[in-house]
Design brief:
Blueprint: H1 4-16, E1 38-42, E2 45-48, E3 53-56, H2 71-82, H3 92-104, E4 110-114, H4 117-132, E5 136-140, H5 157-161, H6 172-175, E6 178-181, H7 186-195, E7 200-205, H8 221-231, E8 235-239, H9 251-255, E9 262-266, E10 276-280, H10 282-285, H11 304-317, H12 322-343, E11 349-353, E12 356-360, H13 369-373, H14 377-390, E13 392-393, E14 402-403, H15 410-425
Parallel strand pairs: 3-13, 5-6, 5-7, 7-8, 8-9
Antiparallel strand pairs: 1-2, 2-3, 4-10, 9-10, 11-12, 12-14
Bound molecules: pyridoxal-5'-phosphate.
Pyridoxal-5'-phosphate binds near residues 144, 241 and 276.
Length: about 425
């Protein structure tokens, strides 16, 4: 595969941008090689600056549930840009997006828009602390909640991939307020509550983990988490930045029938533009300024471009049968991939919830971080490059989710399975 233009750009990028990338997950540091610079995307495909075409399962790391440059999104963006992109004053569409979110997620009675998932999670933690008057939080090893200081402790995603789950530059005094439990292990949570009575403000959790690769919650785990927060006067924060409007029309909370106190969102609700949101119970949200004493603000929060892209995306997702269609495609893909792995006798476990999935190079089951880390990441790296050669774009890390969009067709999925078989056959 010819990549001379990308290689030249990457050399140039490294002169001016740390590591040549504006988010570490984009670098190919853990799999080796040079990332292609993407020139454009359409539907389920992207093209790099050298003209190579890829079937895309990265989906910009989750937001692009409708695929690239969906006509409804493009049209509203053009129209909005002509009328001004930011006013720092309320706009009507903010109300519409908030209404759609509150309508879809029954636990969310009131919602504040921000500009990233990081901001949403950072603010949700601050809010839980303000509401409970407690400082400590529990997170799970391998879960990622953005890059706010106290959340970069045993974090997933790029932090995990690059071997720095607990970031340098986070004061020990912050990190010590973050208690790290094991996903799908309620005992590890109980021990923290016993050891820290009346000190834990909240549990923050990805209800379906996506940032150590996809790991679904074990039966009863989320219920147990909810009960222990209730029993101890702590709040439950669902980080639905990936799962919101991805695993179903009502998020993971709808899928598993759990009512968290606070929910964070991002990715899909911005339709490919920078957005985040946090919302929840009215009495909790009333702590947020200007109503209450918890301060949080944003110059570009709720700007019409991002909000309209989000509304257009969520409206498309309201069409009947969309989530069933996404799931059918994802099942077709993961079934096909499972057979492809079996055919070459490479141990694998494919975890899937809705249209998010990860194929682990691991005999499995993969039910937590330690299991995920038992995967053959060296072989994943070789598979990744073999897939790039075949024209399929997957995450440059074993510890990430893949995403199917409504723009993928059955033919695309069949083609992908065939390409994966070819890629896998080169590994042995
Ligand atoms: C992506 C992600 C975030 C952070 O969102 P950004 O918009 O990248 O800041 C937070 N939580 C989860 C679960 C995510 O996947």
């Amino acid at each position: 595969m010819q990549r001379s233009k990308s290689e030249a750009l990457f050399a140039e990028a490294q002169k001016y941008i740390p590591g040549g990338v504006n988010s570490p997950v984009r670098s190919f540091k853990s799999v080796g090689g040079t990332p292609p610079f993407i020139a454009r995307g359409q539907g389920a495909r992207v093209w790099d600056v050298d003209g190579n075409e890829y079937l895309d399962y990265l989906g910009s790391w989750g937001p692009l549930v409708l695929g690239h440059s969906h006509p409804a999104v493009v049209e509203v963006l053009k129209k909005t840009a002509e009328g001004g992109t930011s006013f720092g004053a309320p706009v009507e569409q903010e109300v519409e997006l908030a209404k759609i979110i509150c309508g879809a997620l029954p636990s969310v009675e009131s919602v504040r828009l921000v500009s990233s998932g990081t901001e949403a999670c950072m603010s949700a933690i601050r809010l839980a602390r303000a509401f409970t008057n407690r400082d400590k939080i529990i997170k799970f090893a391998g879960c990622y909640h953005g890059h706010a200081d106290g959340l970069l402790v045993k974090a997933g995603s790029g932090a995990l991939t690059h071997g720095i789950p607990t970031s340098a530059g986070v004061p020990e005094s912050y990190a010590s307020e973050t208690l790290v439990a094991e996903y799908n292990d309620i005992g590890s949570v109980e021990r923290f509550f016993e050891a820290n009575p009346n000190a834990i403000a909240a549990i923050i959790i990805e209800p379906v983990a996506g940032n150590m690769g996809v790991v679904p919650p074990a039966n009863g785990f989320l219920e147990a988490i909810q009960k222990i927060t209730k029993d101890n006067g702590a709040l439950l924060i669902f980080d639905e930045v990936i799962t919101g409007f991805r695993v179903g029309p009502n998020g993971a909370q709808g899928l598993y029938s759990i009512t968290p106190d606070i929910t964070t969102m991002g990715k899909i609700i911005g339709g490919g533009l920078p957005v985040g949101a946090y919302g929840g119970r009215k009495d909790v949200m009333e702590m947020v300024a200007p109503l209450g004493a918890m301060y949080q603000a944003g110059t570009l929060s709720g700007n019409p471009l991002a909000v309209n892209a989000g509304i257009a995306t969520l409206k498309e997702l309201q069409k009947p049968g969309i989530f069933e269609e996404l799931e059918t495609l994802a099942v077709q893909l993961t079934d096909g991939l499972t057979k492809a792995f079996q055919a070459v006798e490479i141990p694998s476990t494919i975890n899937r919830v809705g249209s998010m999935f990860t194929g682990f190079f691991n005999a499995g089951p993969v039910a937590g971080l330690a299991h995920a880390q038992g995967s053959d990441t060296e072989m994943y790296g070789r598979y990744f490059h073999a897939m790039q050669e075949q024209g399929v774009y997957i995450a440059p890390s074993q510890f990430e989710a893949g995403f199917v969009s409504t723009a993928h067709t059955e033919a695309d999925i069949d083609a992908t399975i065939e390409k994966a078989s070819k890629a896998l056959s080169t590994l042995r």
